[in-house]
Amino acid sequence: MPVILNQPWTLLADKTEDYAWFPEAASTFAAENDWLYGVITIVCVIFFIPIAFSLFYFAVRYRKPKGGKAESNTAHNTPLELAWSIGPSFFLVGMFILGAKAYLNHRTVPDGARDIKVQSSSWNWSFDYGGGTVHPELHIVVEEPTKLSMRSTDVIHSLFVPAFRAKKDIVPGRYNYMWFEPTVASRKVSDEELAAAKKKMKDLGEENWNFDELDFTPDGYTYYDLYCTEYCGLNHSEMQTVVVVHETQEDLDAWIKKYSMRGENEDPADYGRKLYSRRGCSGCHSLDGSKRVGPSFQEVFGNKRPLTDGDVVVADENYVRESILYPKAKVSAGYQPVMPSYKGQLTEDDIHSLVEFLKEVSEYSPAEVVAGDPESSNEEKPAEGKNATDTEAK
Amino acid sequence: MSAGSIPSGKVRDPGYPTKSENYLTNSKGILSWIFTLDHKRIGVMYLIGVVLAFAVAGLLAMVIRLHLFQPDGAVFSGPKANDYYNQVFTLHGAIMVFLFIIPSIPAALGNFLVPVMLGAKDVAFPRLNLCSFYLWVAGAIFFISALCASQLDTGWTFYTPYSTSSNSSVILATSGAFILGFSSIFTGLNFIVTINTMRPPGMSWFRMPLFLWATYATSIIQVLATPVLGITLLLLIAERVMHIGIFDPEFNGDPVTFQHFFWFYSHPAVYIMILPAFGIISDLISVHSHKRIFGYRFIAYSSIAIALLGFLVWGHHMFTSGMGPLTTIIFSALTFTVSVPSAIKVFNWLATMYKGSISLTTPMCFAIAFIFLFTIGGLTGLHLGTLATDLHLHDTYFVVAHFHYVMVGGTLVAFLGGVFHWWPKMFGKMYSEWGGRIAALIIFLGFNLTFLPQFVLGSRGMPRRYATYDPEFAYLHQMSTIGALLLGAGLLVALVVLLHSLFRGKRAPANPWGGATLEWNCTSPPPFYNFERAPIVGDPYDFTTIEWDGENERYVTVDPEREIAPEEKPETEPAHAQSDH
Known about the structure:
The complex is a heterodimer. Chain A is 39% helix and 15% strand. Chain A is of the alpha+beta class. In chain A, α3 packs antiparallel against α4 and α7 packs across α9. The longest helix of chain A has 34 residues. Helices cover 62% and strands 3% of the residues of chain B. In chain B, α3 packs across α8. Classes of the chains: A alpha+beta, B mainly alpha. At the A-B interface, α2, α3, α4, β7 and β9 of A face α3, α8, α9, α10 and α11 of B.
């Protein structure tokens, strides 16, 4: 059926892609769903064409100058009216049954499906691959039923993969589940192409990978779009990520390993930079001083932070750590308490790496605070003089 | 008086009102409007109010479409761009729904027409009527200032917990909606009582114009559903102040409960928006086809059926939210049942046009546009009512296109048709017929260009409420934006045509279209007392005695010459008078 629907568009030569009715069909749901969509559309057309035709035909055929009399004044015709009241119902029952059957299939997770835990928070996605590996991209294996166990840390989100024709809201305060079975694996682009793209991104000075320009991920896989479709506030339209479908389990394992933890000799600050873009920090915290939903990391570490409750604290290691694990405990003045907690989602090493990264990007000298007693920096009234004392103490 | 073309008979035409009779001029000064109890003046004030609200929300829609001309946003830029976009679409939706579509037909046209169609002097409770207008004004001011002052960006649906997590403005906004709700309840109550008790002798239920049936069905929904909005508000306040734990997951509440409460009002509200439109179209098609409406009873009953079934389908807004499978399937089945009465009406309207004598006047052009657009809107509802396809289409542009086809292509076009149809009656002026037709054509074309591409956007997976989007959707978004500009131009033409008629228009006759309902039996505009004496109640769709008077460019009712009873006395004595009886 989608083939039939697509045919008129294919005449538009190379613009076909942009005008296609459906995104790529890449899951077991897609074929059935598109077929049903086609059936309903054809039924609609069967009804619509006669209605539209008679509408315009009657308007022309029975048009008369003013004062003309109607040719007939039939008030009703009960058999005819019953026919067109009851007749369409058969089509409706058919649609309902087909739709409900396919829906039950959507709702029934097959036994043995791979379970991936999904956490959504405004405005980023985290997919947990076990063993402490969490990544904002969804990576799965082709022809393997995959179940998503989803939770939200703040407001309602909705996970939608158009290529899979699957969608489910994620409601805070409960788990919602969905499943699908991908049928088409992602392609891996050549190393040269990937290197060229990486160079281009670097030349352009792009902070994040530009998914709008490139149709593959930083790891070189083509991808399917994944959207948030329940309005969730400011950056709802940027709460997007990608789905990569691996050919084999081995390929997926290799990918997971790459992101599982900090490398043996990797510098914590470098790893922290990766976590910064991978774990959703970059959505709200800039590095160049511009104000987003949260304070820019350029001005955090070592700086004195006024809080919403009027206190002032010095942002030292413990303050950063607390802000990651209990973000609502001390909120910087001028910002909303909207950051989700990362408690249980980051290892101690991850937090250490993030702190080191913050030190690196901060424009304030960390030395002043590092030496100070951690207690003192959290005191209620760290006035100007207090900071000076710290320095002297050093 | 009668022209040559009119068959002989007794010509009945009320003529024109004098200045002291005309409801617009019979008393002067701003106070005579502010404290008026005349349902016609209240209707005109409502008309001005809802048109202003529509203009504001329509301009916001233009901003939305212009912003979406580019994938990264063409209007707003900088770090606050998304914030501005979110506020604009919230304002657009909230103003359109609560200030324009819900009161447009029932309050503006309904207030003017219901008593006149009943041959009554006024509604049952004129003071309540004025009160409901001022509640609307107060609610509108309160609502808009609440939205703007708190920079509300929750969308018009106020879904928890987003609406409760950042600030408390949602309570102010819902309070505004609550005040507006009371206005709606009062109007509905007034119409129910008026229609039940003030029908003139001879007007049985099945001799009422179909507009009154539609208004009656709408009023039932207004009175029954709107209080739920109030309950929702009270619960929301209790949740915020006392943390009773009903909506907020932080206190073991369930955000989906809010959706149930919200749609239990807002889905029937969808029928508050569309049912009066059905009523207008039934009257327009019949009058401008100069033919009896086909299947009167089916149309009347289907209005009531829609009003009742409309209460049972709210769950179809939540197919993806994680309701149990059985609940979901039941809501899907109920949703399909609502489509039947709507389909019946479309078939009946077409059958009315068949073998009629159609005048392609401006109101008829709008009515034809309505049937075309509403049919598309209704049929695409089937894709959404079907569960499996809804999982793909839910919260995408397909939904946006669907409800705009029903609400704009349906309600707005019917409202415009109704305004053009009753404009001569309301203001006593004829507008430029060609101007009106051109406006209808531009609106029809612009509307389709705006919203047809959105169906494709939706099936391709473009989520709604996105301030920025992936570049592959750009072509369709640009088509849509160009269509929106065309639609805006068409609406502007319509406004100019109507305003122009007020100053330059020809004086309108009492019956410019050949209608048979009672409002055409009084002068245009009606005198402040509506009818000198209770009018003769005939069949509202019997056009056989209505003739075109070409000389005076008007329709008149021609009653057949009645034979005078024989003057001579019978020669023989009747049997009952005989003495031996």
